[in-house]
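Researcher: Go.
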Amino acid sequence: MNESKVGAGLRAEAARAVDLVVTQGRSLDAVFSELERRLGPADRALVKMLCYGTLRFHFRLRSDLKKLLDRPLKARDSVIESLLAVGLFQLTDTRIPDHASVSMTVEAARLLRRPKYAGLINAVLRNFLRRDIASEAAGDDESRFNHPAWLIDCLREDWPDTWPAILEANNDRAPMWLRVNQRRGTVADCARGLEQADHGHQLLSGVPHAIRLDRAVPITELPGFEDGYVSVQDASAQIAAPWLLMHGGSRILDACAAPGGKTGHLLELASAGSTVTAIDLNPERLTGIHENLARLKLDATVLAADASNPKDWWDGKPFDRILLDAPCSATGVIRRHPDIKLLRKVEDVAAMAKRQRAILEALWPLLEPSGRFLYVTCSVLAAENEAVIGSFLAAHREAREDRVLPNYNIRDLMVEKDFGFQVLPGTKGLDGFYFACLEKTR
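Model: Structure:
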């Protein structure tokens, strides 16, 4: 098969994947995991770039298409609209030559069994190049900021001074962060290995085991990855385990633990003889926890369990440390998951907050007196963060917030809230995370 035909096939694959997210509400990660089994490494990288980029700028691209199309496409041909968006993304945000982007996107229509649209696609993409639509007025807030209107409104309300910066950070590509396993080696050792492999990197003051790569690389190229010396984990997520274990801890619960990044970090830091129980509601996601632990050569009790219903799985022995990585809107990690902009709806936020409070209420009795409970989300919305913690503290006289951070340098990464602390997306290249540390008084 010639290069042009292969390129057209990859664009057809990207259009199908984008269409499944846009029209069926499928997760891009789930769609791409099915797709990558059919692709080699180089093809996988190109399709991933096209899918993630097209969804990252979904609202702008669809606005541009409205200006270029005389009338909307029929619903049954939604994949062609997604293919057009993939074509526009190539012309505006990649270094792929214009003539190759146009010709291979046109050919992809035939591979999608819609040959009648080949002429339309060719005309639309060439008209885009002639008109320079990118210089025309951006239109509404959705197309200007590449976010749904409901989320823009929420961020304006919760972050009146910084909401534009949050939106801008969400539209960037997320960097690749590593976590060095202190049981296997030091950050200095890992840094030397990266230098020898010609991988540029940076360290982050306050997050002692984190290394940021200058460019993302396949995990197979990371020195020591297969042997458990390093893991891939955003530096914000690496704040949780040291915070929870700041004053020790021997019987630890990691609730809503999949895919197991924080579970591994807890075990790397825990003292000898400590035990970790990791639970997650979805049995299929436990595979990721088991794989992580096997690679790190660490052991934990891993259970498929509902954190909001402990009577079905708890053995009655209190935990002295509990980490709740609560299910949330994930509005702090949109850089990594641009499909969140399409999959989340405004009504989901209240439902998430209700679920978070229910899990917090259910797990609190499992914590022994003087124990520590770390509440974590990857959301930047107040309704899921300080509102949940504030209402919980008001209802529980035996609960108090410990506002002492795990180290002084980390304060520069945080925004201090009335309850808890927020890392905003883009701060020092970090994802958006919220933390609140609670203690149970005697």
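Model: The longest helix spans residues 3-24.
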